[in-house]
Amino acid sequence: MTAILVAGVLYFARDIFIPLALAGLLSFLLAPAANWLERWKVKRLPAALMVILLCVGALGASVGRCWGRSTIWRSSIHSISRMSPKKSTLFICTRTVVSARRWQC
């Protein structure tokens, strides 16, 4: 009975617990970098902000690079597939990728 009650509470409180769990995970991942900056005489709050800004900037830069490459790749695939015969492997692969994207949630 207790297990069912705990499972029910966790199910309905997942909107609160998932962000808390992610925050805890990020704190474990980013704490060594902030500690390293503290050894270099940077106070805790500026060290934490610098680490967070560095991670967000790196994530944004990598997503931006991947996004730009994917749009170039998609446009070149579509232009090549228009030139090739309808039964080519490239056309079949492109058609499969497009139809798979329609089924994604």
TrEMBL record:
Pfam families: AI-2E_transport. It comes from the Bacteria. It is found in: Membrane. The keyword Transport does not apply. It is a multi-pass membrane protein. The chain crosses the membrane at residues 47-67. Keywords: Membrane, Transmembrane, Transmembrane helix. One of its GO terms (cellular component) is membrane. Belongs to the autoinducer-2 exporter (AI-2E) (TC 2.A.86) family. This is AI-2E family transporter. It comes from Alloacidobacterium dinghuense.
